[in-house]
């Protein structure tokens, strides 16, 4: 189950510049700095295989895993089974990847290798293996800047926050960073927000390390810092009731609750997953530490250094009108109950009272398209296209235009002027293929005049001249000649 606070709407007039900067740094670190990791690991595996080390180390590694499981120091039972199977099938390359990335095993071999091999074998092994580790494994980003609980360094407490284990890990963290960051940044201000974010990551990492102090597995990722933002978020709102989005399986919805009431739920879930959940690579205690650190910082320093900006408490435009929120909530409730006719009446009334709120018109459009034979559907399509063009919301305009034509096909009631408007809007927004589709629709329109079509054709020719697309220029010049 996932619960996310969504009380505040993003105001692009005051963009979250620091949050966007942190996201950019994470992305650049992943694609520029961490991009070398795969090459380093492949080179390490090549040398490891060339030295026939899997045959030497794999049986010892299996014994190492099984011993840890027996002594309850290790819970990697599935890995032990997979290693045993790989040894039997002689899957040397897979074993190489697994063994090379297990630092604890390497440290054990350095200290106890003579218990498994003769002294001369151990000496030869150590020379080859140490070279591979020093030249390749130790230079992998997670080893250099990841947080290793058994070898904590101050630089790693900052560095690990900007490393990620894969594109999915990065994407998930950056989405949550953005969703939470813009609100907390507005509340604290850019500089305090950055310091608080990094400090939450440091405390989160220390909390994580405290529960696994002997581990040599590096911790990477911004999730501890982001959990800190979640803790700060609910602490900022305190006992005020705010909206939360939740996702359970395939079901999702919103609910309101006192902000602080969710904090123990979050912390409890992370601790439960750590102690009783299935084994995984998720750093549950880092999340729990971040949540506690974020909330604790606001409670302890909220009246001094971490004081909330006064402008943060100024209500948004929609919050200034409680009547709007009440009626809007009712309209959405009617939609969820599939009372579509009543919902249309509600949204129509809201749009009449708030004509600048394009969202109400968008709701009406989606409700009307349930019966695209109704005249109201055609009317609201035109209204929504006009409103989107007026507010320069190109994506909404284009989506509405394409969706409408897909549904009605030859029964379209769009006048020539709408196809023309869409064509020019597409050109302004560098969407040349959509502009061509609008031209095709314009050409098929029964009321099109040669002059309008000729002008549109000329505009497309000029656009393709800028792009130096000779074939397209010739194509539309041929069309012009036929008019």
TrEMBL record:
GO cellular component, one term: membrane
Gene3D superfamilies per UniProt: Rhomboid-like (1.20.1540.10)
Single biological process term from Gene Ontology: proteolysis
Pfam families (alphabetical): Rhomboid
Bilayer-spanning residue ranges: 15-33, 94-110, 162-182, 194-211, 217-237, 244-267, 282-302
InterPro entries the record matches: Peptidase_S54_rhomboid_dom, Rhomboid-like_sf, Rhomboid_protease_S54
UniProt keywords, alphabetically: Hydrolase, Membrane, Protease, Transmembrane, Transmembrane helix
One Gene Ontology term of the molecular function aspect: serine-type endopeptidase activity
Topology relative to the membrane: Multi-pass membrane protein
Subcellular compartments: Membrane
Peptidase S54 rhomboid domain location: 153-303
Family, as annotated: Belongs to the peptidase S54 family.
Name this polypeptide is given: Rhomboid family intramembrane serine protease
Annotated organism of origin: Alkalimarinus sediminis
Lineage of producing organism: Bacteria, Pseudomonadati, Pseudomonadota, Gammaproteobacteria, Alteromonadales
